[in-house]
TrEMBL record, chains A, B:
Pfam families associated with the record: THF_DHG_CYH, THF_DHG_CYH_C
Any one biological process term the GO annotation gives: photorespiration
Pathway entry: One-carbon metabolism; tetrahydrofolate interconversion
Record HAMAP family: THF_DHG_CYH
Family membership noted in the UniProt record: Belongs to the tetrahydrofolate dehydrogenase/cyclohydrolase family.
Name the record gives this protein: Bifunctional protein FolD 4, chloroplastic-like
UniProt entry keywords in alphabetical sequence: Hydrolase, Multifunctional enzyme, NADP, One-carbon metabolism, Oxidoreductase, Photorespiration
Superkingdom of origin organism: Eukaryota
Listed GO MF terms: methenyltetrahydrofolate cyclohydrolase activity; methylenetetrahydrofolate dehydrogenase (NADP+) activity
Function recorded in the entry: Catalyzes the oxidation of 5,10-methylenetetrahydrofolate to 5,10-methenyltetrahydrofolate and then the hydrolysis of 5,10-methenyltetrahydrofolate to 10-formyltetrahydrofolate.
């Protein structure tokens, strides 16, 4: 991106502003800051919590290891959680383990991916997964089926991979074409190879105390891994999960609860979600709404994990769009103690966790 | 119980007092009330929420159908949710359905109960279940095994019931003797006959949007049934579940979320749980701590479902003890808009829901 930091900053602040503040959008940055400092009310501030943006009090202590400081204006102070770096660390560790495993028991973990149809984004994901597998030494098996394939064909391939001892993980790329029953197809994957962790039996075990899931879904697992690697204490903390999807929000809430956080789940039916997020020491947001979580929604010192990857129009970008999270980064980074960026936060962790689950499966198969 | 209402009231208020207020315990009722009205602080009041006990503002509207008014002093105003009556209504509906089913397809639902060991409380539960089955027309099958039976023996009986077409529900009475692996035994029950709903596959489906559990665990199902039958709106409401057990707290939270409540789960690691419960429109408490939830923990107008059944010493009772809930009824009934008593609240609902699950299973087997 060619824009200067100041220009980019203005653009991003613009993104976070609600439609009613169009006039304010056009103010140059220094003017906006003047407003913040001179008044405790304004379009970006909540009268119930007027000092969230202008004060930096109550920051929680936070380990600085592996932390890259945000290159923001002087107002920004949240540490940026570097998902790209952590994902690389995880992949390096996996590669080392696989190499050792190969040497000692001559086993190479295998991951099968089934792609149906010709969605560009899905094809990109699958390509990235394949590359990531190769880089760490996981053998990848790929099946690409036409959009008009039948459910039976997909099930036939799943059945083949279920029985194939070289394959330790099976992943069906979602979404499937609308004529297929996603539930039937996902349920066909043997639970021992369900590296996505989406099987209800896995989810049930995740929910239950004293039970262990075979696999934890990759994205929420990646969120928790980021918290662990940045030494964010979870036990006894208030955590709010924004979104209750089967893939991220719900399992993230279950994982946080397993770690003894006190969890609240906010969703589309929640009235005044900001009153709840404002109590959180940790927020995980996974709703797919660009910049929905504003600075005023956040308790000073909170840690923010932003799972959203939302394309927004951007004429200055050669692709005509760029990616933003569910959280308004500019506002949040002035209030939070740590925050994941988008892109480069949770995103890279998902594939790293998929590799981790595949390795885990291979190790379990051979009691290694 | 022979005590006069006033004496009982005093006793119950005493129960709710923390140990440090032993002196206050001995005060006659009117004196305690004087203290409440004269001061906004005191052992039973929280300075952050000083008016919860002395004001009756903000009560939510609440359907009065099937509601019996609490026979308390003038201060009490919460409607008492009559679990005994609702459970009887449910049982009557089940009996009518079973009678119809028998007439039309000649099928009688069957419930098998396996009891291991000679715990008195378990024997009582099993006896009550048997009686309840008989009353609605469910055929009950009972196996009583010695405390020193092997896991294999229990599994053999489960296997037999799994294959028996007359049996539509199998229930293993918990707790099992310590030499048995509870998980192995519960997992052996065919999911189609798991009327307890404790199988991880059921719990997983309960957690997932777009999936349906075969059975919902009986006690949390009973809690939600009480809310439904008393026309308590759940959608969009703040709900707090106190406790996160596999049997009650966790599935209750999942059920509330399925009904579009915004749910928070409070547990033993939660700091200042009262700050969270005070935000709740609905509280379900299932921790097994007598009178833990005080009046000051409750938002005026909230609806309270008290799952706890805790024996406390009571020299005036011929048995030497009596049962109280997790919630201090006397304090709570002055703040809440509706509350379940203990006993006579959630308790009778559990068996009613077990019968309901057994009927459901039989209907499903025959596509009835």
């Amino acid at each position: 991106m060619a824009s200067s930091p100041v220009t980019m900053m203005k653009m991003k602040v613009n993104d976070c502003s609600p439609p009613s503040t169009t006039a304010a959008r056009l103010l140059p940055l220094f003017r906006r800051h003047q407003i913040h400092f001179r008044s405790s009310v304004g379009p970006l501030q909540n009268p119930c919590f007027p000092r969230t943006i202008i004060t930096h009090a109550s920051r929680s202590s936070f380990s600085s290891s592996s932390v890259i400081t945000a290159s923001m204006t002087t107002e920004a102070s949240a540490k940026v959680i570097d998902g790209k770096k952590i994902a690389k660390d995880v992949r390096d560790e996996i590669a080392a383990e696989i190499s050792l495993m190969k040497d000692s028991i001559s086993v190479v973990p295998g991951l099968a991916v089934i792609l149906v149809g010709d969605r560009k984004d899905s094809a990109t994901y699958v390509r990235n997964k394949k590359k990531a597998c190769e880089a760490v030494g996981i053998k990848s098996y790929e099946v690409c089926l036409r959009e008009d394939s039948t459910e039976e064909e997909v099930l036939k391939y799943i059945s083949g991979f279920n029985d194939d001892p070289m394959v330790h993980g099976i992943l069906v790329q979602l979404p499937l074409p609308s004529h297929m029953n996603e539930q039937n197809i996902l349920n066909a994957v043997r639970i021992e190879k369900d590296v996505d962790g989406f099987h209800p039996l896995n989810i049930g075990r995740l929910a239950m105390r004293g039970r262990e899931p075979l696999f934890v879904p990759c994205t929420p697992k990646g969120c928790i891994e980021l918290l662990h690697r940045y030494n964010v204490e979870i036990k006894g903390k208030r955590a709010v999960v924004v979104g209750r999807s089967n893939i991220v929000g719900m399992p993230a809430a279950l994982l946080l609860q397993r770690e003894d956080a006190t969890v609240s789940i906010v969703h589309s039916r929640t009235k005044k979600p900001e009153e709840i997020t404002r109590q959180a020491d940790i927020i995980i947001s996974a709703v797919g709404q660009p910049n929905m979580v504003r600075g005023s929604w956040i308790k000073p010192g909170a840690v923010i994990i932003d799972v959203g990857i939302n394309p927004v129009e951007d004429a200055t970008n050669p692709r005509g769009y760029r990616l933003v999270g569910d959280v308004c980064f500019e506002e949040a980074s002035k209030v939070a103690s740590a925050i994941t960026p988008v892109p480069g936060g949770v995103g890279p962790m998902t594939i790293a966790m998929l590799l981790s689950n595949t390795l885990l499966s291979a190790k379990r198969t051979y009691n290694y």
